[in-house]
Amino acid sequence: MSDEEDYMSDKFLSGDVRPSLVQQSKSKRELALEDQKKEHIKRQKQESRLRKGIVDAKTLEESLKKPIEKHNKGFQMLAKMGYRPGQALGSKRSCNLEEKRLLEPIPISVKSDRGGLGREAALLDLSEKRRQIREKQIRDRLGGEEVSVEQFRKRAQLKAEERFAIGALKYKIPDVVSYLAKHLTWKTELK
Fold it and tell me: Which portions of the chain have biased composition (kind: Basic and acidic residues) (predicted)?
């Protein structure tokens, strides 16, 4: 009996012999259609992102690392005005110090939401105003006195310790009572 004929050999077991393999053609077809549908949905999402102009960070980083090509219309316009690769834009006369001239382009940030250009700054201003209003309300409640950060932290720590102690006592009192009942003998004498 050779190694090839042995049913316990590696060659015999090398095939896919999982018990969960689909053997019926109808089930195989359903699984294949499901896989095709998933691929189609994935492709549609990618195409939709490209149509909307949404670029992921990886693609953006790769495209920004590449230099502008010579046949690019923007590069050709810059070259007509005297730009050479590796040099800063603008004439040396326009700046007193050469350190002020930029060699790298200004970084871009891709906006993928529909909030508008000034929305982030407006939200920051709004949150700052809300914070100031809250501070004023707290000062009014405390009688107008200024509370330092250290005092606030100390008070918060004391409150947390108090809540912990109350919680620990709430769960430990029945244990303490049962311990005392077991280990202490109460003798009452009736007279």
Answer: 27-50
